[in-house]
Amino acid sequence: MPIVESSTVVPVDPATAFAVSQTTGPTRLRWDPFIRRQHFLDGAAAPDKGVRTFTKHSSGMTMVSEYVSYAPPSNVGMKMVTGPWFFTSMAGGWRFKATEGGTLATWKYNFSCRPAWLAPLAERIGAWVLQREIDRRIAGFARGCADPQVLADVRPTT
Fold this sequence. Notes:
The chain is α+β, with helices and mostly antiparallel strands and 158 residues long.
């Protein structure tokens, strides 16, 4: 099962980095180049373990995923419930750890492809494509963690 991972250090504390990673709506679209649209399902109003989300990728592909862990401000994990036909499975986790100068954000995904006879080639290609996507996405996340509007949207008002 291929695994792709990308990390960056952002100049905010883990709680703020985690909050940025969980933004929705226009705030999310300011920093996340991966999605075109995303919303919670089943009447959920906020992320939590067991909550499902619908995501439309910038290419038009769609996926329903479910939070399998939700532990602010340190980590969040998800798994695909339904998605593109070529994925047998897909899951990911985002971790946030305090470091000198801010927070180390590490995003890791694993997946498997079908059909089985094509999986060895499809997974090599998929790992290359997904690595590029995740690198672009975490770079967008880093920009979001430096964007005054995104930060204003996630920080409590006093």
